[in-house]
Amino acid sequence: MRILTRYILKEVLSHGLIGTAVFTFVIFMRDLSRILELVVRNSASVPSVAQLFFLILPAAFSVTIPMGVLVGILIGLSRLAADSEVTAMRAAGVGTVTFLKITAIFGIVAWILALVNNAAIAPRSAAALASLTNSMASSQAAFEVQPRVFNEDLKNSVVYVQDAGSASGAAVWKNIFRADTATPGAVKITVAQLAVVSGDKDSIRLHLMNGELHEVNVTAPDQYTIQTFGEMETVLTAPPPQKPAQDLAPVTQLSTRELLNLAHSPKKDIARYYWIEFNRRFALPSACLVLVLIGIPLGLSSKKGGKGAGFVLTIVLVFIYYFISLTGQSLARSGKLPAVVGVWMANFVFAVIGTFLLWRVDRMPIELGLGQMASEQFKRLTAWRFRKQPQEVGAPTRQRFFSQRFPLILDDYVLRNFLGNLAIILLSFEALLLIFTLFELLSDILKNKPGWLACGSYLLNVAPSMLYQVTPLAVLLAVLVTLGLMQKTNELTAMKATGISIYRAIIPVMVIAAFLACGLFMLEQYYLPTANKRQETLRNSIKGRPPQTYLRPDRKWILGQNNSIYYYEFHDPDRDQFGSISVFEYDPKTFQITKRIYATRARWDTVLQQWAFTRGWVRSFRGSAIEDFRRFDVATFAELNEQPGYFKKEVRQSSEMNYDELQGYIRDLQQSGFDVVRLRVQLHKKLAYPLITLVMAVLAVPFALSAGRSGALTGITIALLIAVGYYVISGLFEAMGNVSQLPPSVAAWSPDVIFALTGAYMILKTPS
Description:
6-stranded antiparallel sheet
């Protein structure tokens, strides 16, 4: 019995660990790029980055540990049932109770780990993560100032840096324009040719060289002061870190004991809120136990479905469980159900169903056969390729698309297995991300009550973006599992014996991968931008935020086309008017100010096709000397020829534009002096990322053939390692591109080239 116990535990534990690791990685992918950018910027120490890495994991474990238990039991027992090992065990007198005792060990251990994670580790990590994020926000101040962009986030300062570099290990800025906005109406302007930069926790220290300081009150322009300097020290103060809203604070960061104390508050609404969270921390880990009850009978009975049935059942059951859980918590939050009943409702329902199935499985086996059912449905969908014509009497003929050698019956067989595995994996990843997203928004849903229609619409609009992100990983995993199983069962050896090489056998998989790559690009080009805009609007509604506009009425500094800088306090884009506007013209070589214009009002004259400035003054400079000064009631300046549309740039996210729109957006922003390095990286990634789908398929082939004898489990492990390698390298190169350490094209395309060359080399070295 000990041997049997170890054998079954090994089976369910191995699948459970792999399932938990894969699901956790899929969730963690969303934060990986942010962590890698911290590393590239050197704005966080290695211990801080490692700490950030580990602090993010407990929140994911709260969802993935119960899922891992269900995956382990369903796939492990399904594999035993598919290989008739369960039948042999039952013939030897092993009943359902024995399976329950053995797998209960696995479930109880997982329950203890999940309970410790939810009740103790996750709250502490959430509080530590909030504290670390705030400290990093302060310590990054020196690294957030980007060249060729007006940095308006500093306290009482606006800084424009034309170029940034380094010398002798220190950061160096070239051609600096700094406006001190502490005194309205009397903005102090400092320009310098060079600055040596050093930063600490909440400030940036500048050692300026070869510059000028201009001081004037625009209402008294006769009093104008210019000071030249060879060297000068100044300090830029970073803004204080944003504090979280009061209603969002606390619940995830409070300890379990604090929650219990707050649950006894005399205010019933507040007490109910904390009491729900307190019960939730114990109810979610307990899912490990109830999923054991329901997983054993389903796993033992899915002998025709094998591992495919295990995947399908996992997604269906997890979705049902979390849907019931969220519904119960919503009813408890509204007071329609007691908190304990609402939070524990999903566990109670699954426990009852699991107990019934355990009682029934020995008396009347549940023949699920999900894998066979899916296979039969797929055969029906593809039956048109084998359909006989009415006049045919002999053997059926197959329709040829390209030649008599493609596609063959073998191609149909390979494609059927590959597409079946791909569909199951995509469904698994999509459902996981949707569930985790819904869980993240749970507190906002319960608090703001946006309605299930808004929540459903949000999930429908965010689902395509998730599909876009996980498809390359799903293709990698599907190729490894498909070819790995074919290698294990000697089907690839049989193909070689009939004269079909490995290169010929994988053609249908490569064709589908290429079509998927094109499909991802088309999805991103024609659908995702619109869907991303809608999901952002719906997310703001769920979180109780006001609708966001893509126009930036608060932006007051813009670089002109002809060596000029515009500053205004008011802009009416509908009437094409400015209020209290200043224009600084400068020498591009020395970065000295050559002319300064101020007007209380400026409007676009459609007849003259120029800006008409009203009630102001203009002062010209020759070096540090004032060359000319005059007042005016109305004046125009030929060099200021920017059209009104030039000042109406939209602030948009790259995910909300397709390739052509982003290309035009970058071109427009460049003219205004905005930093477009990040956008250029994203522009190249719109082409590079879909192509990685084909690259992943190529890379998976040699690994599947080399590890095929070990089965699909080894393939999943290899897929996870490859995916980790790709996303780390991709995130690292993207972060380096964002901070101009690499050209945007190199940053975006290097991961594709590296993995493509590796895959091609390994395929060529593989015996065909």
